[in-house]
Amino acid sequence: MSRLEVLKTYKIFIGGQFPRTESGRYYTPLDSKGKALANICLSSRKDVRNAVVAARKAIGPWSERAAFNRGQILYRIAEMLEGRHAQFVDELMRQGSSKVAAANEVNLSIDRIVYYAGWCDKYNQVVSSVNPVSSSHFNFSSLEPMGVVGVVAEQSTSLIGLVSLILPAICGGNSTVVLASENLPLCAVTFGEVIHSSDVPAGVINILTGSTEEMAVILASHMDVNALITSNLETKLSNKLALLSVDNLKRKFDYEVNWVEKEKQALHYISDLQEIKTTWHPIENVGGASSSY
Amino acid sequence: MKIKSHTSNKIPVSPSIDKVGVEERVARFQSRSIKNEAKKQGLNLVLSMIDLTTLEGKDTEGKVKQMCYKAMHLHDHFEGIPQVAAVCVYPSMVAIAKNALRNSSVKVASVATGFPSGQTSLALKLKDTKFAVEQGADEIDMVISRGKFLTGEFAYVFDEIAAVKEACGKARLKVILETGELVTLDNVRKASDIAIYAGSDFIKTSTGKIQPAATMQVTYTMLMAIRDYYDETGIMVGMKPAGGISTAKLALHNLVMVKEILGTKWLSNEWFRFGASSLANDVLMQLVKIETGVYQSNDYFSID
Q1: Rounded to an integer, what distance in angstroms lies between the CA atom of residue B226 and that of residue B258?
Q2: CB B297 to CB A248 under 8 A?
Q3: Which of A22, A239, A275, B84 has its Cβ near the most Cβ atoms within 10 Å?
Q4: CATH of span A37-283
Q5: B297/A224 Cβ within 8 A
Q6: How far is B46 from B280, CA to CA, in rounded Å?
Q7: Which residues of chain B does A218 touch, with a Cβ-Cβ cutoff of 8 Å?
Q8: Chain-chain contact of A224 with B294 (C-beta, under 8 angstroms)
Q9: Which helix (H) or strand (E) segment is B90 a member of?
């Protein structure tokens, strides 16, 4: 007797759990041959709100973790992704990739995660500075995470665009609310399962599927979201989001980058999502002697 | 000394509570959808019913003054926001709060009787109560002796409440049952009946120091005790859930419950209160969200 295949229900990822959208809505993206990929949650504004609440709750403990420990956890994501290599290749192929391109994309994603895992306990030393000032102060600048970062994943890729935006954000101690690619959402949901099994605390990464525009405007106007990053977004929507971001002076970046290229990983993707804190520490400076710290 | 006319010396026989039934009924209150104008009205009502509370060992004069200021000015950027009902402090802070609130209608409630455990002698409890009243407290929140209650000394608990009621004079008395320590809903009902019959003006769920605190099941059970007493005697008793109600949504669910069990007569801060320290900001954020359409952040509201 032939066996009935058990299909996966693609759900969203909020606060370390996999609920369905509170709205009960769904949509059915198609593969390149016009066949249905799966029924996917069409998340609502309330899902966005819940995800931001979860991200805000996670930010304190995550940003206060030892940087080295954050690095270990990021590396663990890479380990888990490696273990699910075949599943991601399969999903990418269902979404229209060739076998070679799919394998390349998964390999590159794993390598990129390891790259950012390495930066966790190093970026602050590289970017921070001791500043020359003309008074008796030891003046230094160091980085602090911005807080809750809204991530609108790249639309033309399912995995690498998502990974390339999320990793630098959490590497720097931020928490994220991620909107998956609207038409290629499969890998985003499965990536949530990878996160779930990687010691990443609940709420640090939250992943929603659905209409990008519908959710992005809520993220952009949300007063409790501190930064918004997008990639290769159409100009009209990008401008709209920039305008909505003004109310609480969100940082907004739109990266026009082809993430499939190997070298598209860099320190500035981390430091873009950091605030610089400068400290003026009074020091004794007797008789114009040189620096005494 | 005028003692409330309904005070009797008889400890009532309490009905037993169907826990499964209570949970089902409570679940239905939580499925109500309250939108737009009704929500706005409800949220403003919630704000006006809050007893803004600080009951910490680390409380200082400055902290109490700051909280009193918040009680009068919840969010001045926004018009039409009511003041809260009262502030709730330790007896040693009553005079400071009273002075800070002298030009407002916000009342001062004081915990007493060896709060939060109540493990002290009756003489000290009465002294504690009288001190708070002398300092100017409008309301007294007393704790019952849970140890005595659990060992079945109901008469002791009854007499103690009656004695504290007498010591309160003109101040209104709220009796804290500390339901988190009473274990069963049957005990909650029994304690509610004892408190009501012993003459309390309000019954209150918790000190806020013990979890679980004001669950809807517990509040439901206490509201039913109030209703049965009202049906029997025509005398109204107030209700104050305290501890654990920190979101606007939960507060609205509580209002729905009060409305459906006790009716609109109880929907004012004379008869219903929320004991809370962080509820006010969440309600304010919801109100601003309704007005502006934009989800709000705690960063732009005053510190609790």
Answers
A1: 11
A2: yes
A3: B84
A4: 3.40.605.10
A5: yes
A6: 8
A7: 295
A8: no
A9: none
Nearest CA-CA distance, residue B273 and chain A, Å? 27
Query: Which residue ranges make up each domain of chain A?
Result: 37-283
Close Cβ partners of B152 (under 8 Å, ≥ 6 residues apart): none
Mutate which of B297, B299, B301 to disrupt the A interface (most A C-beta within 10 Å)?
A: B297
Q: Tell me which chain A residues have a C-beta less than 8 angstroms from the C-beta of B77.
A: none
| Interface probe, candidates B278, B288, B294, chain A, greatest A C-beta count within 10 A | B294
Residue A105: both structure tokens together: 């994309």
Q: For all residues of chain B together, what is the average pLDDT? A: 93
- Only one residue has tokens 């390339």, namely A164
Q: Of A185, A121, A120, nearest to A152 (Cα)?
A: A185
Mean pLDDT of A143-149: 97
Kind and range of the H or E run holding B107: strand B107-112
> Among residues B224, B301, B245, which one has the least CA distance to residue B50?
B245
Domain count, chain B: 1
Could you tell me if residue B302 is inside a domain? no
Q: Is the distance from CB of B11 to CB of B154 less than 8 angstroms?
A: yes
Amino acid letter, B147: G
| pLDDT value of residue B1 | 40
Give chain B's largest Cα–Cα span: 56
Q: What is the pLDDT of residues B254-285, one digit of tens each?
A: 999 999 999 999 999 999 999 988 899 999 99
Alpha helix (H) ranges present in chain B?
Answer: 19-29, 36-48, 61-72, 94-100, 122-134, 146-150, 154-168, 185-197, 216-233, 248-262, 279-292
- Among B31-35, B144-148, B190-194, the minimum mean pLDDT is found in B31-35
Kindly list the residues from chain A whose CB atom is less than 8 angstroms away from the CB atom of residue B297. 222-224, 248
Interface of A with B in 35-64 (CB under 8 A): 49, 52
User: Closest Cα of chain A to B29: distance in Å?
Assistant: 19
**Does the residue B212 lie in any domain?**
yes
The pLDDT tens digits of the residues spanning B124-134 come to 999 999 999 99
Do A113 and A200 touch, CB atoms closer than 8 A?
A: no
The whole-number average pLDDT for the span B234-252 is 95
Instruction: Measure the CA–CA gap between A219 and B145, rounded to whole angstroms.
Output: 50
Whole domain around residue B27: which residue ranges? 19-290
- Please answer whether residues B69 and B96 qualify as being in contact, where contact means their C-beta atoms are separated by less than 8 angstroms: no
User: Residue B261, CB half-sphere, CA atoms under 13 Å: how many?
Assistant: 28
Alpha-carbon torsion (B77, A52, A269, A122), positive or negative: positive
Q: Has residue B172 got a pLDDT over 60?
A: yes
Residue B11 lies in a domain: no
Q: Is A128 on the interface with B (CB under 8 A)?
A: no
Residue B295 lies in a domain: no
| Under 8 Å between Cβ of A251 and A228 | yes
A221–B contact, CB cutoff 8 A: yes
- Given a cut of 50, whether residue B109 has pLDDT beyond it is yes
How many CB pairs below 8 Å do chains A and B form together?
A: 24
